[in-house]
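Query structure, 128 tokens:
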């Protein structure tokens, strides 16, 4: 039996979370997805996903570091980039909610990166 795929209320796996290079790879850490949805409930705001899962090639093309949490090949992805209304509010919530230990607001691109880095225990960082 194949394991059923997780569904999360406010995100569409096919159009939002799979690798956007066209390879359609999807391999997210379920715990991250649960936290992602919890965060979505918290901010009560539609999130426009700019980057979800990335295959290794797409991550390189996007200029992502080789240790990127977006990579879903050989490990599970545990990060997502998005923009929404009220970025300052969304950023503050992402930092304060305790759901993620990697929160980066790329102001030049106007996107927020939220992630769970399993190798970074209890060492929360938030950068602007
Ligand atoms: Zn890909
Ligand atoms: Zn990111």
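Result returned for the query:
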């Amino acid at each position: 039996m194949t394991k059923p795929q997780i569904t999360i209320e406010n995100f569409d796996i096919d159009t939002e979370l799979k690798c956007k290079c066209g390879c359609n790879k999807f391999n997210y850490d379920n715990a991250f997805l649960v936290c992602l949805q919890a965060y979505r409930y918290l901010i009560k705001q539609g999130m426009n996903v700019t980057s979800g899962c990335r295959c290794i090639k797409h991550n390189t093309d996007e200029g992502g570091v080789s240790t990127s949490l977006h990579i879903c090949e050989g490990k599970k992805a545990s990060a997502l980039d998005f923009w929404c209304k009220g970025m300052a509010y969304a950023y503050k919530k992402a930092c304060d909610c305790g759901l993620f230990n990697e929160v980066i607001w790329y102001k030049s691109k106007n996107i927020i990166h939220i992630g769970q880095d399993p190798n970074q225990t209890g060492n929360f960082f938030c950068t602007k």
